[in-house]
Amino acid sequence: MKTVVLYGFEGQFVGGNEYDYNHPELHHVHKCILFLAQDNENPDFEFATTECSKFGFANLKNLTGKPLKVDVLNTDSFRGFTGFYEEALNEGSSIVYYPNT
Description:
four-stranded antiparallel β-sheet, alpha+beta, globular, single chain, 20% helix, 4 strands
């Protein structure tokens, strides 16, 4: 069974992304959350870094990882992240970036 691990980081969007999504402006730095489906709940920073580059992010700082506890998606604070969780389970990963941070 897949587990979604959340990776928080700050990174620069450098382009060259392999995924088609509404990405930020080139060379801007953003705080991000990567939702990454894995076979276990142990953070795999090498895998996460590779996946971040597929979204066009480089120069990652403060990369942290922890498994998502699914029940938190039922709370008011995290309900908006349900779609990212589902996308990670279905597609393998999803990313949230916070513009102008």
